[in-house]
Amino acid sequence: MDLIEATAETARQLVAAGKGILAADESSPTIKKRFDSIDVESTEENRRDYRQLLFTTEGIEEFISGVILFDETIRQKTDDGTPLPELLVRRGIIPGIKVDQGKIDLTFFPGEKITEGLDRLGERLEEYRSLGARFTKWRAVITIIGDTIPSPVCIEANAAALARFAALSQKAGLTPIVEPEVLMDGKHTIERCEEVTLAALDAVFSRLREHRVVLEGTLLKPNMVLPGKECPRQSGPEDVAAATLRTFRPVVPAAVGGIVFLSGGQSPEEATANLDALNRAAPQPWELSFSFGRALQQPVLAAWRGKAENADTAQQALYRRARLNSLARRGEYSPDMEKDS
Ligand code: 13P
Fold first, then answer.
1. Enclosing domain of residue 65
2. Distance from C-alpha of 105 to C-alpha of 112, rounded to nearest angstrom
3. Which of 22, 72, 78, 87 has the most CB within a 10 Å radius?
4. Helices 294-304 and 44-55: angle between axes, nearest 10 degrees
């Protein structure tokens, strides 16, 4: 199998029926924020303990096809000295790696962001491959403020970076997860989110084509089309699913290896209900799966609180959320299931 075929094969495995991705690739500042919320100090040892807890949860391989790791995590080991990526592989879970180096201000465009990390990315990818990674992730951040932000320059610059990242990943035999995230911060309407998401996806797929990226070996990690968190008019799952699919149909090619949604600050229950509604809509040309960070981990962190004696309850919380999202991925979830313990 050549390297490009390998990227398509990995993409297929990542969106296998009933399975999705656990995003556990919080950067050091982000994991600190999550730990602060449960009064746990963000030390390297605590971060390792927490990730080890996630990855040793019995049975999650039924629902989790892959895990996205952070640079520090891909180098860490379990208590018995097994590298964390090797632990995942033994359990039939594919290790992936966040390769972007975070967002910075976009010069001359106040309020807008661009993602860093392209310099010497080719060399870093070779190292990540040798450490066990089979797929990669790059997150671009698009903010909505009023009618003028995002600017076309921000959308284009981020799409170009995503395409460079995707091409380099495929050259290294790694499946790129292309993540143009339109943030749900703010009071914008769902219609405004639809308009911006359409523009962002259109730019991304144009640039991917120009850069000769093979779509079958690429996964898209988009936001769902949602109203801003502070918008007075919120939307239910059917409306979110309809708006999201209406937005994707004209611009997301059927050839793409799959769609793995981010949760982006929705509650775990909302994210699952919306994913379920998306999968209940008539058959689509793409697999509609998940690559959730917060929507999978929030209840785990709340149960764990940094205490070894809470590990079992925390792992049960992860197993439960992963199972519910697996059902949602098949369109078989019901909010009533949230009542079962
Ligand atoms: P959330 O699901 O918490 O948005 O995280 C997904 C992710 O990987 C963001 O880059």
1. 3-340
2. 6
3. 22
4. 110
| Amino acid in the structure at residue 272 | T
CB 73 within 8 A of CB 24: yes
- Tally of domains within the chain: 1
Ligand 1 centroid distance, CA of 304 (Å): 20
Is residue 295 classed as helix, strand or coil in its secondary structure? Answer: helix
Residue type, 154: C
What is the whole-number distance in angstroms between the Cα of residue 262 and the centre of ligand 1? 5
What is the Å distance from ligand 1's center to 173 Cα?
Answer: 24
Separation CA 13–CA 328 (nearest Å): 18
Q: What does the alpha-carbon distance between residue 73 and residue 79 come to, in Å, rounded to a whole number?
A: 14
* pLDDT in single tens digits along all 341 residues of the chain: 798 999 999 999 999 999 999 999 999 999 999 999 999 999 999 999 999 999 999 999 999 999 999 999 999 999 999 999 999 999 999 999 999 999 999 999 999 999 999 999 999 999 999 999 999 999 999 999 999 999 999 999 999 999 999 999 999 999 999 999 999 999 999 999 999 999 999 999 999 999 999 999 999 999 999 999 999 999 999 999 999 999 999 999 999 999 999 999 999 999 999 999 999 998 999 999 999 999 999 999 999 999 999 999 999 999 999 999 999 999 999 999 999 76
| Domain containing residue 142: CATH number | 3.20.20.70
Q: What is the dihedral of CA 27, 292, 155, 121, to 10 degrees?
A: 50
DSSP state of 169: H
> Would you say 165 and 121 are in contact if contact means Cβ atoms under 8 Å apart?
yes
Q: Of all atoms in ligand 1, which is nearest to the CA of residue 68?
A: 8
| Residue whose CA is at the smallest distance from ligand 1 atom 1 | 293
